[in-house]
Design a protein that fits this description.
The complex is a heterodimer. Chain A is α/β, with parallel strands linked by helices. Chain A contains six helices and 16 strands. In chain A, strands 1, 8, 9, 10, 11, 12, 13, 14, 15 and 16 form a ten-stranded mixed sheet that branches. In chain A, strands 2-5 form a two-stranded antiparallel ribbon. In chain A, helix 2 links the parallel strand 8 (about 60-70) and strand 9. In chain B, a hairpin with a 5-residue loop joins strand 8 (about 240-245) and strand 9 (about 250). Chain B has a domain at about 470-605. Classes of the chains: A alpha/beta, B alpha+beta. The interface between A and B is medium-sized, with 21 and 26 residues.
């Protein structure tokens, strides 16, 4: 199976308190970049679908990772090549010149060229939290889609049985390939992904695999292509304009109430919730 | 056992400082992509350190407290390591962080040693006790890789480097610790060419464990009829399980774990008493074959540099973890009002980092940690240049090897002594909370104490420095070192902002030179009894000079960088921190070097003069 995984780098959430706003724009100088965690889960899922989990050295199929960004975003792609992806493509753009729709349209052109059996993406990026690219891409391609996958079972690499996480439980959907699937956190649990290549009894370590040193060294030799955005879509104008950013207001100190009576009174008269 | 220990990671590291050292101060980039480091570029180095950091935080860090509280135990004659250690061992070797700088010939990635040392800091800082096991296997494998016969290399080296088999170094005996030459373990040659080993070894780290399928002991023993003292010692390969010429494991060799030590720290590391040949059935082979009988000590000496560097790095790694945890706590913990409102009981409580003495402790720890890390990188960068220039520029390689030899005792002793002191200061920064198990610093402090003792006590390091290294190559290595320091002083003593501090370095350098001359004089004039009384002090002075020099070099680089860095960029604070810690060290520690030189010149012999009885009459 050939799988295409779109990937976004985001400012390291652990250093989120360093985010600064200047004149209505995010200051990105000095931010540390990390792959969007949900996209990392998508890469991990793609790797699990294309290997024998008990002998992971050879890949049964191909995993291609794609990102949109400037030259230095190639570090994120190399890291994914280090964990096992076969090939990488960088669509050359600035960080603030695109929106989800531009990305989806460009990906459509890329999918038509690459002809993957499956596009696997994270359910959303943890910076903007838009959560649109997967759905828009499926629409533009006219492919079936299954979002928020917490489990995937490959049926002979012809169709996928996808356990979608919804309020109150899981809905199982069968999608015929080719398809677009977006993944949620639980997809990286030890037994969430079942492929035709891995014994059913196999349990993966929880989470995203580590890049081994030898694979990091080998990643340098794996192909990484650059594509111009204009070569993928003639209409690269974003539809969403970001007018301003502001940091959330600091939390105000609470007040202490004397007794329950005062609490109830205040809930009635001030908060108006009872 | 009561309830299971909660496995959470408390380890954090300063990767920004590591990258500063590698690429800005020591310019590793100039060696990458060429010659022996052809496969390595800056991106591989950065990705390795970053990914290695993720690995240690997720895999090794959470087991640090587990190992401390659970400890090891013996069941049915075998050592059982703490929960999770075996899984971590397998993940570690699958990830390859232990085989980074090993030659591709033995399954490694051939990285610069300086990069491996940064990974060592991460692994050891996340879990010093766990890291003992692979560390010992690595050291033992290196001995066989250097001195083994071709057959021995084929059997052992890749298996041990790769974690399939573990390894130990068995030197100490109940009556032979620092005095290794009095070892009694015996070896008798058998008709089939093997040797029968008999004796008891103590304090053997990782002397047995359940992490790998076999454990290969390197045992110092005396062949029957060999001379007394260190000249009659031979290093034997003694596998726990015997094997055939293809490494297929067979019957158990006669090696028994008879006890585990109960220790102050590194409780997850099994410190064993091993008995060899209790049933007269323990078989061993000399490393390098019969031709190397009685060559045990020279073989050990060649490997000691690497082992001693590692122990210094252990001190660094735990100190760095303690400092960064104390810093985090100091920013969060509120106590007391700010100095400007100290009389007002209603004034808002401030984080303790706002208190002057807490800031002093933090800056003291910062300077020591970053200074010792710089020493580790200075040393290993010299080592990388030995590798790089050997065969193409032998003069350069020789100069660099000389600096490695000279700096090793400093790294081991100063790194471990000050590492322990930083841990102690970290506890003080926390206050009472630091003394409890709710925070990691008390464990760091207990774990760190052993570093100044094993792998040659720090006094042995200081005697190595003054007795061997100062006069090595006719004194040329020390002179080259002093030349490097003086070159820096000459180039920067008129520096616009750091000139005054650089002059303090110059004063300290002169004082050290004078003390070195005095030591030489003692040797020549027969006043040798002064040497052991002053050796520790001299080592400390030279270490402080070196660390002061390297911190000031960092400050000069930082001052230049500050002129062009975006003020919004976090690097601005990073470089400012570099300048401040260099100034602090130059003002609070460097002046002490000249003072200690005066003490040394007093030739105080009171520790020698006092009678044994006079120490206490109880």
């Amino acid at each position: 199976m050939k799988i295409l995984v779109p990937l976004k780098r985001v400012a390291d959430p652990d250093n989120a308190n360093k985010v600064k706003v200047n004149a209505g724009k995010l200051v990105t100088t000095g931010l540390e970049w990390k792959p969007n965690p949900f996209d990392e889960y998508a890469v991990e899922t793609a790797l699990r679908l294309t290997e024998n989990g008990t002998a992971t050295k050879t890949r049964q199929g191909e995993v291609v990772v794609v990102t949109f960004g400037p030259k230095d975003s190639e570090t994120t792609l190399r890291a994914m090549l280090g964990t096992g992806a076969d090939r990488a493509i960088r669509v050359d753009t600035g960080d603030d010149q695109i929106d989800g729709d531009v990305v989806a349209r460009a990906l459509k052109a890329l999918v038509e060229k690459e002809k993957p059996d499956l596009v696997l993406c994270g359910k959303q990026a943890v910076d903007g939290d838009s959560g649109q690219v997967g759905q828009q891409l499926a629409e533009y391609l006219g492919w079936p889609q299954a979002t928020f996958a917490g489990s995937i079972e490959s049926e002979g690499d012809k169709a996928l049985l996808v356990g979608r996480e919804v309020d109150g439980g899981t809905i199982k959907l069968r999608v015929e390939l080719p398809a677009v699937v977006s993944v949620d956190l639980r997809i990286v649990a030890p037994k969430s992904v079942k492929s035709v290549h891995t014994p059913a009894t196999h349990a993966y370590p929880e989470g995203v695999r580590f890049a081994a040193l030898m694979a990091i060294m080998a990643a340098k030799k794996k192909p990484l292509a650059e594509v111009k955005l204009a070569d993928l879509t003639s209409d690269a104008a974003p539809k969403i304009q970001y007018l301003d950013y502001e940091l959330p207001p600091a939390r105000k100190a609470g007040v202490k109430v004397k007794d329950v009576t005062e609490l109830v009174t205040r809930l009635k008269t001030e908060a108006k919730v009872v | 056992m009561t309830k299971p220990v909660q496995a959470i990671n408390r380890y954090k590291a300063d990767l920004r400082d590591m990258f500063f050292l590698l690429f800005e101060q020591f310019k590793l980039g100039e060696l990458l992509g060429k010659g022996p480091f052809e496969a390595w570029g800056e991106e591989e180095v950065r990705t390795s350190v970053t990914e290695g950091y993720r690995f240690v935080r997720e895999v090794l860090g959470p087991l640090n407290v587990v190992g401390d509280i659970e400890g090891c135990k013996i069941e049915n004659g075998r050592v059982i390591t703490p929960t999770g250690f075996k899984d971590a061992w397998e993940k570690l070797f699958a990830a390859g962080w232990k085989t980074m700088s090993i030659s591709p010939e033995f399954g490694g990635a051939g990285s610069p040693f300086s990069v491996q040392i940064m990974l060592e800091e991460l692994m050891s800082g996340a879990n010093a006790a766990f890291n003992m096991y692979p560390g010992l296997a690595y050291g033992a494998a290196e001995v066989v890789a250097h001195f083994g016969t071709p057959e021995q290399k084929k059997i052992y080296v890749e298996r041990m480097f790769g974690g399939k088999w573990g390894g130990t170094m068995c030197l100490t005996e109940p009556h032979a610790g620092s005095d290794v030459g009095s070892a009694k373990t015996s070896a008798r040659k058998n008709v089939d060419g093997s040797y029968s080993i008999k004796g008891t070894k103590i304090y053997i780290s990782g002397g047995d464990h359940d992490l790998a399928e076999n454990v290969v002991h390197l045992v110092l023993a005396r062949v029957d009829g060999a001379p007394a003292g260190t000249k009659g010692l031979t290093l034997f390969i003694v596998p726990r399980l015997r094997h055939d010429e293809n490494g297929v494991l067979g019957k158990v060799n006669d090696v028994a774990v008879t006890a585990l030590e109960h220790k102050m720290g590194i409780n997850g590391s099994a410190t064993c008493v091993l008995t060899f040949g209790d049933n007269d059935d323990c078989i061993g082979y000399p490393v390098g074959g019969d031709a190397k009988v009685n060559q045990g000590m020279p073989q050990m000496f060649v490997m000691m540099n690497a082992a001693r560097i590692s122990v210094g790095v252990q001190g660094l790694s735990v100190a760095s973890a303690a400092y960064l945890n104390a810093l985090e706590y100091a920013k969060e913990r509120k106590q007391g009002a700010s100095m400007t409102h100290w009389k007002d009981p209603t004034a808002p409580r401030v984080p303790i980092i706002e208190h002057a003495d807490v800031r002093r402790m933090l800056l003291d720890m910062k300077g020591k940690v970053e200074g010792i890390r710089a020493l580790a990188l200075k040393l290993t960068h010299h080592q990388d240049q030995v590798t790089f220039y050997k065969g193409t520029d032998d003069a350069k390689a020789a100069y660099n090897q000389g600096q490695v030899d000279l700096l090793v005792p400093l790294m081991k002793a100063y790194g471990s002594d000050q590492g322990f002191r930083v841990c102690e200061t970290a506890i003080q920064t926390y206050g009472g909370a630091g003394y409890t198990r709710d925070y990691p610093v008390e464990q760091y402090c207990r774990d760190a104490k052993i570093f100044s003792i094993y792998e040659g006590t720090n006094h042995i390091q200081s005697m190595d420095l003054v007795g061997r290294k100062l006069g090595q190559a006719g004194g040329a290595n020390f002179q080259a070192y002093m030349g490097d320091v003086q070159k820096f002083v000459a180039a920067n003593s008129e520096h616009a902002t750091l000139g005054a501090e650089v002059k303090r370095l110059g004063t300290a350098a002169e004082a050290l030179s004078g003390s070195a001359m005095r030591l030489l004089m003692w040797f020549q004039s027969g006043n040798v009894s002064m040497v052991p009384l002053s050796a520790n002090r001299f080592l400390e002075m030279m270490s402080e000079l070196t660390v002061g020099w390297l911190l000031l070099e960092q400050a000069v680089i930082a001052e230049t960088a500050l002129k062009s860095v975006d003020p919004q960029h976090p690097d601005t604070a990073f470089y400012q921190g570099k300048v401040q810690s260099a100034i602090f060290f130059a003002r609070n520690t460097l002046p002490g070097v000249a003072f200690k030189a005066e003490l040394l010149a007093m030739e105080d012999k009171s520790p020698a003069d006092i009678s044994d009885a006079a120490f206490a009459t109880v």
